[in-house]
Amino acid sequence: MDIFDSCHIINDHLISTREGQARNELIRLLDYHERNDIEYSPLVNHLIRETGLYPYLKPDTADWGDRFVYEIFKVDIGGKESTLHREQSSLLKRLINGENVAVSAPTSFGKSFVIDAFISIKNPNNVVIIVPTIALTDETRRRLYKKFANNYKIITTTEVELAEKNIFIFPQERAMNYVNKIDSIDILIIDEFYKASSVYDKSRSPALLKAILKLGIKSKQKYFLAPNITSIGENVFTKDMVFEDKLGFNTVYLERFDKYTEIKGDKIEKELQKGEILLNILEQTKTKSLIYAASYPQIDKVSNLLNEMLPISEKPLLIEFSNWLTINYGANWKLTNLVKRGVGIHNGQLHRSISQIQVKLFEEKDGLANIISTSSIIEGVNTSAENVIIWRNRKSGGNSILDSFTYKNIIGRGGRMFKYFIGKIYLLESPPQDDATQLDIPFPDSILGDLDEEIHISSLNNEQVAKIVSFKTEMYDILGKEVYDRLLKENIFQSNNSDFVKETARQMKDNQEDWNGLSYLNSNEPESWDRLIWKIISLQPGEWGDGPYGIQHKKFVEFVKVLVANWGSTIPELLDELDEFDIDIEQFFKLERIAAFNLSSLISDINILQREILNNGTDVSPFVSRVSHAFLPSVVYQLEEYGLPRMISRKLYQNGIIDFNNDNLNIHNTIEIFHEIGREKIKSFNFIDAFDEYILDYFYDGITISESESPL
């Protein structure tokens, strides 16, 4: 590559107002400089400035004008200053001026920097950040804790006492727990807000829309973030917001390799060729790769191929991780063998701490080289790689062809500012047609019954108001006006389907004798739970393990009864007990999640209704709490979200270090206990093994304030 000729081409693009092409050529030029260890000339620095990529400027070799730009675009992002690029700065200015902004930008744009800068500059009292997953909750918490924990209480779990200044970070379902606790919100931030559309998240979009409505009326300002949206259809949820399309501003360049054109023959031959091409890519690239496999069966197929063909790594960290998985999950789990070959799995079903540890290892030089994934990797975490390999051109689940929007989100994981200037995209199946994506957000009728028509009148049309009034009239008939108005005000129901709540209440009132014996759920005798759990889950058929690891209702009931021993038994011991019901480790992960969320939410709503309708003094809140934490001590369950697996918590408990059964413990005073004991002291205990130490370092990093963090 001739540097001067490249600069000439870039300049020609700029003169002809083809800034996007100029930026792409410039990024390729910067990659050439990095690979060949070439110092930036003043000319290269000036072209960086002209394309708006100010963070890439090298002040030591830039002329005074470009150095000046580098300095004036610096902002405090929480304890340290960083230079924003032109479009980040433009976006931040709108927010500082108090505007409500919905922004669509590439994955590599750096939208989170804008949040951090806003908090640092504006010093708000209450910030609410809604993210789609627990994994993204913890990733965001870790970033903000390091910067702002001296000045803010960082809240990610339910039932936490508020401080004077708070940053709330959680999925939409948890947000509802704080609707009545927060008087005023300075800024409401919705990350990945495209999930408000039922097109992209049919089951959870109603909960997000309900959170936007109920928290939005308390918010002084709103900031919604999404990738790859070209326009937003008219809707009540973003009606007072400015839409900013920043999709044209990329900070990395994506280079595409259409490997699918080399694949010929019948179905069997094509699969064999795909496997050979994948192995060749992994052998030739030698850098980090994300392999998008779309579905669980395809993950199994790729896993089997790599398990068979890749050599066992000699990296100590991976050997230790494999041994740790063998002890804590079992030698026969495919991940145990895969990690020895430098390969991880991210499918949205594993224990949260295991997924987090794998992402951490993926970012280590001597850690995992490859991760096989469903779309969970684009929804759950902000990780990137130099290489993204599309093994299968289907959406997660494996049935529908990838649409342009999802495809762009996946390949957007290729490249990263300051790490990989160029992301390399390898397509083993054909890509979708490049289409614009308009985000349409219809108002779902299912949430109407959970709204007060007087409070939300500005967001409702006449037909919706009429439906709410009709719904309330029916609920008054069942529960009485005073009771239903109180429950509505408390935002107490977990379900996002108002009709389901109504029909369950009606059935309970008409057949009260069928609900006798609910108090047995509070007992420590799981054998007495069968009829009740069976009856409860029958209210919502299809919620209990449908899909790739589907399960019969009877098996789910048996699973819950075994899960009671979750704290006292190891996972291999639980799996031995579940073997007679043909429940393997993959089903264990899925069913534990279903029990902790779906089952606990359903029983919580039933408990609310039965207290009002049956009025017999029964309250199964203790059971709801136990199942919502997968029958682990609540703090142990929450610590897993912070990256500390239950196995290490169990060791600390069994050796008398921390009494996790203490009812006075909450996540915040437990973190204080960990600080009082200290990282090195815990790592020195003889029951802590080598990989436990690695995990503890990761955990402590997430609860430690950066030394550079200074008071606002």
TrEMBL record:
Pfam families, A to Z: DEAD
PROSITE patterns: HELICASE_ATP_BIND_1, HELICASE_CTER
Residues covered by the Helicase ATP-binding domain: 92-231
UniProt keyword ATP-binding, yes or no: yes
Keywords from the UniProt entry: ATP-binding, Helicase, Hydrolase, Nucleotide-binding
Any one GO molecular function term: ATP binding
Record InterPro entries: DEAD/DEAH_box_helicase_dom, Hel308_SKI2-like, Helicase_ATP-bd, Helicase_C-like, P-loop_NTPase
Domain Helicase C-terminal: 273-466
PANTHER family (UniProt xref): DNA POLYMERASE THETA, PUTATIVE (AFU_ORTHOLOGUE AFUA_1G05260)-RELATED, DNA-DIRECTED DNA POLYMERASE
Protein name (Swiss-Prot/TrEMBL): RAD3-like DEAD/DEAH box helicase
